Amino acid sequence: MVMDVAIFGATCSPTQSQFVKNKNADEHAEVYPRAAKAIKERHYVDDYLDSLDNPDEAVELALEVAKVHATGGFIIRNWISNQRTVMERIGETNPTTGKRFVGEGGVERLLGIVWMPEEDVYTFSLNYSDSVRALIEGEVDPTKRKMLRLVMSIYDPMELVGAYVIHGKILIQDVWRGRTDWDEKVPLKVLGRWKQWLTVLRKMDHVNIPRCYFPGYDPVSYRSLQLHIFVDASKQAFAACAYFRIVDRERVRCCLVASKTEVAPLKPFSIPRLESMAAVIGVRLRKTIVENHSVQIQETFFHNDATTVLSLIKSDPRRYRPFVAFRISEILTMSTVTEWRWVPTKLNVADEATKWGRGPSFERDSRIMIGPLFLCDDQQE
User: Fold this and answer.
1) Going by DSSP bridges, is the β-strand pair 340-342/299-304 parallel, antiparallel, or unpaired?
2) What pLDDT sits at residue 73?
3) What is the distance in angstroms between the CA of the first residue and the CA of the last residue of the chain?
4) Which of 78, 124, 257, 288 is such that its CA lies 20 to 30 A from the CA of 361?
5) In this structure, are residues 203 and 111 in contact, taking their beta carbons and an 8 Å threshold?
6) Residue 302: what are its φ and ψ, rounded to 5°?
7) CA 340, CA 91: separation in Å to the nearest integer?
């Protein structure tokens, strides 16, 4: 049997589509090298996502990509760009007003990331089913099942709001630890914190995160690009937050790249062990960022407020028991001792993810979005 179309919904269809797409690109790599590279590295099945420095480059590459696809019988359509001139020049006559990064059929259940090209920002769409909406508005009592459904429906792959979402996961763990049944009302000691968590969730519609790290930047400024990663841990969670820093026309600019948060295990661990686990996710986050960016990062700095971890990574891992030794070995494999810095707890932005206060602020100039103020100082200071 021979199939000349991909079966929608078949487990193997994405793999087959990827293979055919890449093979078609390879066959035209000599004539269209940039388009072939873009198709192989910037495509997932039939979705293409790319970013360029100016409209002329974007138009040229888009037309080449479309031409390469057309030779294989694939018509790429529904282009969308934050530059209307680009849309007109590539012949897109009916641009949409926004792009969802989740399937349209699941919008009522998923808090999907939405790109608004007019403003060139990411935002979060609070499109919920009536039952979930009633839970958010406090019209029904929360249960473990309802809490889990709401928290896990927040689609945020880069964890741009991870410092907030992690506290919802902590509340679920507290309910789980209390052996509350799935459809039983949560304890009163959890209910108050849950209501506080919901007050921040209701503001998520107003969160706007620029798609471009540094809007209006001078491309030359990326020669000074630095990556700063803050790590922290508490008895409830551990986290890492990553920021880019550039010197753009003699002005320091910083922005959030991604974060990674995890709830602490149910089994009790000492704070030094949890701090070492936070350091591990910090170096893993660095690896992910480096591998998935085309820009060259000149320097990387890790900031930690735990002197214990800083002492551990300066010593021989073989001196310690396997739990600590393995984690220190991973840290030293993916970073160097000279990249690690001590920072006071008050200046450690990852602290907002591990300790719940009034709740993090996601205003564009808040420290969770642009990092602590000392990053804007001269490097010598």
Assistant:
1) parallel
2) 87
3) 69
4) 288
5) no
6) -105, 130
7) 50
pLDDT, one tens digit per residue, over 68-123 is 999 988 888 888 888 888 988 988 766 556 666 654 443 333 346 788 888 888 88
In degrees rounded to 5, what are phi and psi of residue 230?
Answer: -105, 135
Residue type, 215: P
pLDDT at residue 104 in the model? 47
H or E segment at 326? helix 322-334
Contact (CB, 8 A) for 281 and 238: yes
Domains and CATH numbers, the chain: 13-89 (no CATH), 104-206 (no CATH), 214-376 (3.30.420)
The beta-carbon contacts of 222-227 under 8 Å, at least 24 apart in sequence, are 222/246, 222/295, 222/296, 223/298, 224/298, 225/295, 225/296, 225/297, 225/298, 226/297, 226/298, 226/299, 226/300, 226/301, 227/257, 227/286, 227/289, 227/290, 227/297, 227/299, 227/300, 227/301
Q: Which amino acid is at 275?
A: E
> 45 pairs with which residues across the strands?
none
Structure tokens of 272?
Answer: 């030094």
The pLDDT assigned to 200 comes to 86
All residue ranges of the chain with pLDDT < 50 are: 103-111
Would you tell me how many other CB atoms lie within 10 Å of the CB of residue 23?
11
The β-bridge partners of 253 are 246
Q: Could you give the CA distance from residue 49 to residue 42 in angstroms, rounded to a whole number?
A: 6
Helices (H), 84-227: 84-89, 130-136, 144-151, 162-177, 188-201
Report which DSSP code applies to 117.
T
Q: How far apart are CA 293 and CA 9, in angstroms?
A: 31
The length of the chain in residues reads 381
